[in-house]
Amino acid sequence: MAVVRPFDKLPALNSAAVLLVGSDESLQQKLAEAILKEKKNFKISIHLATSLPLPSERDHLRPRIDLIAFMIDIKSKYSLKNVEASLAHVDASFFLGKVCFLVTGVGRVNYCSVEMNAIWKLGEVYCSPVLYCELELEGIRVATAQRLLRMLQICAGHIPGVSALSFGLLMRNSADE
Amino acid sequence: MESEARTLPSAGRLSGAARLSRGPLFGRAHGRFGPGSGGPLPPCSQENADPQKTAFLLRKQWALYSVTPLYKFSSGKLREYARLLGAFIAAERHKGLAVQVGVDLDIQVTFSSLPDLKGSEQDHAAMLVQLSSRSSVSPKNSEEKLMWSGWFCCVSGDDLSENVPEDFTCLPLFLANGAESYVAIVGSWFQKTFDCRFRRLAISPLNLTWMAAMWTGCKVEKNASATELVFSVPCLPQPLDISYAIHPEDAKALWDTVQKTPGEITQEEVDLFMDCLYSHFHRHFKIHLSATKLVKVSTAIASAHCDGIIKFLQSKYLIGVLMLLTELAISQIQ
Amino acid sequence: MAEKLPEQMSDYQHVPPEIVNESVGHADAKEELLDECESIWRQMEECQSKLTLLGTETLPESDAKLSLLMMRVKALTAEYNQWQKRSPEIISTNPDVLVALGKEELQKVKNGLEMVLSTVQSKNKKLREDLKREQQWHEEQQQIVDVLNGIEEEMKNQVVQFSEKRAFQELKNKMLKLRTYKEELLNALGEFLEEHFPLPEEDGSAKKKKKNSSEEPAVELVTLHEILEILINKLMSTPHEPYLTISDSFWPPYIELLLRYGIALRHPEDPNRIRLEAFHQ
């Protein structure tokens, strides 16, 4: 199956899955390790992909994806192009709160190869939150991991009364004010 | 697209700038020296500027700095400043050299005004500081040797000059050529005397793409030197640079197909121009240049390095290049 | 349909796991809960099968935002309706289940309260420490006030007894003391300078002499002691013009030393002149 869909499989008990899509594999790896180090009361599976679509032959092994985080490095224009191309392989209903854009390299304006406006627009068009961070700094990496984990819990339906959609709306309102 | 359009005649004011405040600070006026005969340049500068007077600025490497506004600076006191700076340098050179043997170099300091280098009426005249040496051993041979020069300028820096309180002079861009130790000495004197701050001005890869596009669009005479872009590949054990040279006429032809309205450049056009170059390169070498870092752009107009080094090559476009650099300096200060 | 699913799932995932693991004695309670889970799971499977029929939908290239916003409106309306329709679910009346749930709830409350307790305790401790410190400070202040009062009392008495002659005598004594002290200080300084800052060693100066001998006669160097004296005198006698021109008889390292440690200052316009830092001002 070429397109990733949010409800294509039944969920597994007490577990959640996040998919990290980005062209910088070492940063992805670091973030994944930071997420795994966090304390949590559910099983988590982290799937890494440099780009979408995911290979269909391993589709039956993959659990249901609850959250997709697209990683963009402001130092590499390629990372943005890569994410833009991957977005075409995501089912539209994923954008109802289960997608976020993770922008790393923030604060290194002198190395900037990407127009920040383009990234901001991406979040705007796809109605998804844009998280700015610097994954190369340990402290910020840990904080980002915690943030993603919290979002993942909501997206996987582990928090009664809060759906991914309403949470996304909440984030938007606070960001626009 | 609608929000990033940069219109030339309106002194770079930009409608809908509000959303650009989310990006880094280069949302304002870019590239008012467009293609063609350099027409979009502010009228006052180009015609009055005597290419002879600024010729010495060409073909030299200048290190870029941003400078916060100078407090209580007066252009009428340049002679006095020269004397004070000369004494300060002499004192600095005595420091730690008490048991000095050898030739005592006599350093001559001159301050002069470069009134031609401005963009708008509000700009303060540029100021040149030169250090030259005269050997004190043989005073007869009084031929002075230029050791170091640096100049302050502000070209269309209205954004800043309109917003500073009285008693402050805006000369946000400083360019230095010569030993770095003199930048430190001269800088610390200015810092002490005018309560200002110097900072190296790096050029981000994104701004380099703007320069590449804008300079490509400028008309130059035939058999001009090639347009060259240098990329550095990140995350490798050994540094690897890729040089991408393009015939200037080919580059200009490409740019002309990309640019929609002459005299106006948008981010989309710059992106598209670079993407075309990248995909051409990818077709031949299977390398994604977009994943690398653009470190240097050199054209017949000027060459710029991301570490903040510039070389002007054409006096005709000097003001235009300075305008862009002034803007970068201002955005670094703010 | 699709919007309903996440909520049901969250219900499903929230069955307290503890109960599922209860002992054999509560077999029927467990049975009942498992049945409930089964029924929720079946509902989910139903929803799931409907969802799979929906097929995929990717966003169009143009106007992605518009179609996404339309979808969001639809989804949010559905979610809203769902919440409106939803009535509180009645939990099982089975006493075992209720006991287990109650226990869990109480445990949660207990944990929370324990946390509050420890926070309050540490806060109290901090407050006690603060109080102690404040009290101590207060005591000290009180002592200072007492001492000051005593001094005031003494002064009052002295003022009364003051006679002109005695005051004169006292001042004279003080002057004498100061003079001797100044003398002592000057001697100590002189000794110190002689011991630690002698003139450059013979060999050093000899070398210099030799080098310079061809061009100019060697200059007699003066000691640091003398330099300092000249500087002090200059500052004291002509405060409007305290600068001294550095001559060849000053050994450069000593000048450098004075400048480096802020004892002397260079003239702002003439590097060859120095003055003493105005320590007396």
TrEMBL record, chain A:
Pfam families this protein is in?
CENP-M (PF11111)
Question: Where in or outside the cell is it found?
Answer: Chromosome, Centromere; Nucleus
Q: Which Gene3D superfamilies match?
A: P-loop containing nucleotide triphosphate hydrolases (3.40.50.300)
- What keywords are assigned to this protein? Centromere, Chromosome, Nucleus
Q: What InterPro entries does the record tag this protein with? A: Centromere_Cenp-M, P-loop_NTPase
User: Mind telling me which GO cellular component terms the entry cites?
Assistant: chromosome, centromeric region; nucleus
Q: Where is the signal peptide?
A: none
PANTHER family linked to this entry? CENTROMERE PROTEIN M (PTHR34436:SF1)
Name of this chain's protein? Centromere protein M
| Provenance organism | Apteryx mantelli
TrEMBL record, chain B:
N-terminal signal peptide: none
- InterPro entries xref list: CENP-L
Query: Region labeled Disordered — which residues?
Result: 29-49
**Entry keywords, A to Z:** Centromere, Chromosome, Nucleus
Tell me the compartments it is located in. Chromosome, Centromere; Nucleus
Family stated for the protein in its record: Belongs to the CENP-L/IML3 family.
Record's protein name: Centromere protein L
From TrEMBL, chain C:
* Pfam families per the UniProt record, alphabetical: CENP-K
**Keyword Iron, does the record have it?**
no
The answer to whether UniProt assigns keyword Coiled coil to this entry is yes
Q: Where in the cell is it found?
A: Chromosome, Centromere; Nucleus
Q: Give the matching InterPro entries.
A: Centromere_CenpK (IPR020993)
**Which keywords label this protein?**
Centromere, Chromosome, Coiled coil, Nucleus
Q: Give the domain of life.
A: Eukaryota
Question: What's this protein's family per the entry?
Answer: Belongs to the CENP-K/MCM22 family.
Q: What protein name does the entry list?
A: Centromere protein K isoform X1
